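Same chain as my last thread, 222 residues:
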Amino acid sequence: MRRTSRYLALCSGLILCASLASAQSTFDVNLGFGSTHVNSNGQGIDGLTSANAFGTCALSSGDTLCQKTPGLSGFFLGIGGDVMLTKRYGIGAEVNLQPAKSDYGPLQYRQTFYDFNGIYAPIHQKRVQVQLQGGIGGAKTGFSFSQNSCVGTAVCSNVAQPVGSANHFQVHAGVGVQFFLTEHIFIRPQFDYHYVPGLTDQFGSNSVPSGTIWVGYSFGER
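reply #2:
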């Protein structure tokens, strides 16, 4: 429910941006494909069949059910939009998430980053625009585990059971170069940095670098 509320808020913000864009500004919508990498924090978590199921454990204790927690990596999908109120200044929002869950010891997890940014474009030309972004947002790590559920012996299914999530504040900075392939269609390679206090509870660092290729469409005249 909270995730749905965040996405509805993002969509509402983009709709507002679209209405602002009609007042002699440009409005961009974009889809991103990228990745990020953070090392493991080196902690352990006990398996489902342990008396300490899903509890912390020491990897050096000899506990055969103790599994090492992973680092943060893998494919991220992004959705976002921005409105340039002038040729140099604008505002925007974006969400980046893992479409597929990854293993976290005996659990599975999905990582999400969302942020709201101010935008400055020091270079604004017909075919090229450099964007500097800075803002705030949040990071969510959602956890679940898979469990088989059967009706007799005829029908069995694998059901994901949520077990909670970790939510953190984040500060975001990004730099991208937007290349216009046509008057309205663009591609933007972008490097991002997320600083997430408390993320070391789940992974090995509060600093999260990432890279994304955004493909989008620009409404209005540049």
